[in-house]
Amino acid sequence: MNSEDPRMMTPEGSAGSAPVTGYREMTLEDVPAVSAIGAESSQSPWDEKSVLTYFLREDTLFTVAEEEGRVVGFAALLMTPPESDVLDIIVKREKRCRGIGFRLLDVLCDQALLRGVDTVFLEVRPGNLPARRIYAKLGFLETGIRKNYYTDPAEDAITMVRRRNIIYVS
Ligand SMILES: CC(C)(COP(=O)(O)OP(=O)(O)OC[C@H]1O[C@@H](n2cnc3c(N)ncnc32)[C@H](O)[C@@H]1OP(=O)(O)O)[C@@H](O)C(=O)NCCC(=O)NCCS
User: Which of 96, 98, 108, 109 to mutate to test the pocket of ligand 1 (most atoms within 8 A of CB)?
Assistant: First the structure.
């Protein structure tokens, strides 16, 4: 593939240096790549066994971001329709601040909506400004503080929620 190949074009249509990012549901083949990205994040519970265990559960939903055939981020939900909890969202370190985290969560919430999930809850560390920026941009509202939610370092969590209207098409 050379730089004039349409598949290498930026969304604006010009041949740029940033590769195109695609978003899709996770498959079994993605398990090693997802756990490798999880391992980049401190205190991550996402070793290969736990990724596989959660992936195989019927009440979870994973979305991955992919560039040039490589997974560069993932987001996961635990679903109890019509409600759900964000399990995690992690973008590969060198791919951050390009809008991938925002899009991942947006796509994940859209996929969840198709499964009858209209309410998404999450917790976030007060100091996690990139994550809080994404949640605010997606319309999540702060609902309170969960005392001593996090360990290592011990910290309270900010709790947030986003509610949407499900449109049923007959
Ligand atoms: C949180 C995370 C997923 C964000 O991924 P990302 O692809 O960088 O996110 P985006 O590029 O879509 O958005 C990040 C936003 O934070 C902003 N940002 C980045 N660093 C910031 C900082 N120090 N202070 C304030 N805002 C900051 C960016 O400018 C961007 O906002 P903008 O689009 O309005 O400019 C990524 O940082 C990550 O994997 N962190 C480790 C895991 C984690 O903390 N997950 C969240 C668990 S609650």
Answer: 96
What pLDDT is attached to residue 38? 92
| Residue 80 structural domain | 21-163
Spacing, Cα 45 to ligand 1 middle (Å): 20
User: What is the pTM for the complete model shown?
Assistant: 0.90
Q: Is 76 among the domain residues? A: yes
CA angle 51, 54, 60 (to 5 degrees): 130
Whether 117 maps to a domain, the answer reads yes
CB 96 within 8 A of CB 133: no
Specify the pLDDT at position 35: 96
How is residue 17 annotated by DSSP?
S
Continuous segment of H or E residues that includes residue 48: helix 48-56
How many Å is the maximal CA-CA distance in the chain?
Answer: 53
Q: How many angstroms separate the CA atoms of 135 and 168, rounded?
A: 25
> Cα–Cα distance between 16 and 19 in angstroms, integer?
8
| Ligand 1, CB within 6 Å, residue ranges | 41, 88-91, 96-102, 124, 128-131, 133-134
